[in-house]
Amino acid sequence: MTSMDDGTSASTPTNALILPDVIYPVIEQLDKSGYKDIQTDLRTTFFKLEELYPGFSRSFLQTFINKEMPSLSSTINMNELTLKLEKYCDKSSYFISSSRSEQEFHELNIRSKNLKRILSRIPDDINEKREFLETIKEIASAIKKTLDSVSNTYQYFKTADGRQALENEKKEFIKYSKNFSNTLKAYFRDSKRDDVYIAANHLLVQTDYLLRTIKLYCETDTLDDCLYPLLSHHQNQSRIISSSRYSSNSNQQSHNIRQSSSSSSGNNRPTSSYETGYT
């Protein structure tokens, strides 16, 4: 692994993954050591601290490593670590529950899980150019299939607010997908792996937010908000981006949206195709 990074704002997606991919799994093991009664309180405390002080969990983990495992402190890269750990963590709570038996939701779960799994392979595959190029092709295909599956759930949204929320999250997902594509192009020029890890972590987080929107409007179960650290930051950023977008020239806005997604069908379903631009 490359050297440990400093947890700057550019690595916000990694900060959001430290809790579910590193801290929470450790807390879940406390019941085996006789500390099950403090699990919920500890989990909630970490979440609240992360919300109040974005990056707290990352700093806490780095401090622990520096003190308890100093030999590793200069070699662990948090952006790489969270990306690799994604495939080992139990993320079942993020996906659409079995209470929705429709095929569209089942397909969405499968495709979004596959996207996360392929993204988590990047640190292992990036060392071999041929393998990495194949992984990139798989990611592009997985992104498109995930977006198509998201569009297929549109029919189950009963309110205009829900449909607009889904459309907003899709646009965010597409934006970060394009950012990932551009980062890959830059990587083949400058070989900055860490930028690739951060861009991939952005996609992991955006996939969670996209699924969260569907769960919020299509499930009756109460959401566990502790699963989504830095959600308030994400929502604030979305509002800023949205405000900026709507203040621009309307013709340019329409052009940008067409570039990021295909035209919606006659029944006003949200757009779903994704132009990767990897080549």
TrEMBL record:
Keyword 4Fe-4S attributed: no
Pfam families: PDC10_C, PDCD10_N
GO cellular component entries: cytoplasm; FAR/SIN/STRIPAK complex; plasma membrane
Broad class of where this protein is predominantly found: membrane
Membrane topology, from the record: Peripheral membrane protein
Segments for region (Disordered): 242-279
Keywords, sorted A to Z: Cell membrane, Cytoplasm, Membrane
Gene3D superfamilies: 1.20.120.1950
Domain annotation Programmed cell death protein 10 dimerisation: ranges: 14-68
Location(s), subcellular: Cell membrane; Cytoplasm
Alphabetical list of InterPro entries matching this protein: PDCD10, PDCD10_Homolog, PDCD10_N
A Gene Ontology BP annotation from the UniProt entry: regulation of Golgi organization
Single GO molecular function: protein kinase binding
Keyword presence, Magnesium: no
Composition skew (Polar residues), residue ranges: 266-279
Matching PANTHER family: PROGRAMMED CELL DEATH PROTEIN 10 (PTHR13250:SF1), TF-1 CELL APOPTOSIS RELATED PROTEIN-15 (PTHR13250)
Protein name per its UniProtKB record: Programmed cell death protein 10 dimerisation domain-containing protein
